[in-house]
Predict the structure of ABC transporter ATP-binding protein.
Amino acid sequence: MLIAENLQKTYRRHAVEVPVLTRLNLEVRTGEFLSIIGASGSGKSTLLHLLGTLDEPDGGRVLLDGKRIDNLPSRARDRLRNETFGYIFQFYHLLPELTALDNVLMPAYISNSTLGWWRNRARLRHRAEELLEKMGLGHRLKHRPRELSGGEMQRTAIARALLMRPRVLLADEPTGNLDAKAGGEIVHLLRQINREEKVTIVMVTHNTEIVSETDRVVRMAGGMMIEEAPPQPRGPFHPRLAAV
Ligand SMILES: Nc1ncnc2c1ncn2[C@@H]1O[C@H](COP(=O)(O)OP(=O)(O)OP(=O)(O)O)[C@@H](O)[C@H]1O
């Protein structure tokens, strides 16, 4: 459904060129939960930004259901960002002065005209509350981010990403700022969302433990995808450990 074709990206600053993607190809399949791993600086976040139209490639194309999305005019691109993609970041990017509920409603405030928001406000509010409840935060609707734990902030951010019923969730190191337990819970939730809401998920991570929850793992190096391996089984049931 989402295809990166010969993607190229070079950052330029003060006459210094940093080539990040050289000729990157990737196909994300409908409904899958895909992990992207790779060394720091290998271009994982850059790729995620290009897939989600947050940045433009220097060469190559990004296709969604066969249609190019890397060169859309700004209104169409804004709409795609708001309605088709949901974004999850390592540091949550919640607005500190808003409650959890208002943070989740943010995409609706941004996307609707005043009239559209007014007409749909009850439905949207209901959806936001339902999502926060699903994230185990039904008792935190009126809390502000500083009153939430890291895991709770990330779960709020996931609810926000789901508000507009996106088809694709793009998660950039969603567990990078969390301890193992909270991180595990986040990946578990993402897996549940992937199955129940039929959302395709692309997750960038350094955490090789959590990739076992995902359907497929690709590795970036040298500006390309170099490897595709099935996730390793986890826990005490790993055959090698079980044999000991
Ligand atoms: N806006 C920018 N301007 C200049 N260079 C950049 C910019 N963004 C990223 N880079 C450089 O591009 C390279 C790839 O960065 P990117 O963040 O995509 O890698 P990454 O694999 O996600 O790294 P990490 O795992 O550390 O987050 C790095 O060398 C980085 O310094």
In short: The first strand starts at residue 2 and ends at 13.
